[in-house]
Amino acid sequence: MHRIDKPNHVSNMFAMANPGTGAPGTQLGADWPNAVQEEICEVIESAGAPLNKADNTQLYTAIQALITAKIGLIDFTKSLAATGWQKLPSGLIIQWGSYLAVSSDIRTISMPLTFPAAGVFCAHHFSVGFNGWVPHAAFVSNSQLLLEPAAFQASVNPTTTHFWFAIGY
To answer: Rounded to whole angstroms, how far apart are CA atoms 148 and 151?
Structure first.
């Protein structure tokens, strides 16, 4: 690829002719459009697609195919609900949710998605503080968490919203 270098270019950019002033436009030789054509065709053919005069989406499709082949399936899918998840292109999955705990409610919750390989981090917290007491969270499986609030919670507040967060891949 190269920038236009034919007569009447302006800093290697195309210039419009101005008949009123007599300023000529940039001359276009065969080398520049042929270079652009071949650069585009190379991308399309490198993706394994034949050139098709009737398809004006070939370059876009080829770029998508080449990126997918290079970094794997791009997955930025998500569910941004109160209990939700986000998949990242690296394969990392972030999940979150909440529940209303009654008394010293120990429960196992099912996450929206199953981690394909493993859960690596999970956390659990109250909607209000309890003098430094931290609730416990642990993976039961790649699809479930064990969430355990502080045992004395019932005497402080019988119903409290609890939030959980998990990361895996």
So the answer is: 8
Secondary structure class of 67 (helix, strand, coil)? helix
Position 89 scores a pLDDT of 81
Q: What is the structure's pLDDT at 156?
A: 52
The fold for domain 78-168 equals Immunoglobulin-like (2.60.40)
Residue by residue, DSSP assigns 33-65 as HHHHHHHHHHHHHHTTPPP-TT-TTHHHHHHHH
Bridge partners of residue 73, in order along the sequence: none
Mean pLDDT of each 10-residue bin along the chain, 169 residues long: 91 95 94 94 95 96 87 75 92 93 80 97 77 77 89 56 93
> What is the rounded CA–CA span in Å between residue 119 and residue 112?
13
DSSP conformational letter for 24: P
> What are the residue boundaries of the structural domains of the chain, listed by start?
1-72, 78-168
| Residue 119: C-alpha distances to residues 45, 86, 111 (Å) | 41, 14, 11
Distance of CA 74 to the CA centre of its chain: 7
Residues contacting 122, CB < 8 A, separation 6+: 137, 138, 139, 145, 164, 165, 166, 167
Whether the Cβ atoms of residue 131 and residue 70 lie closer than 8 Å to each other: no
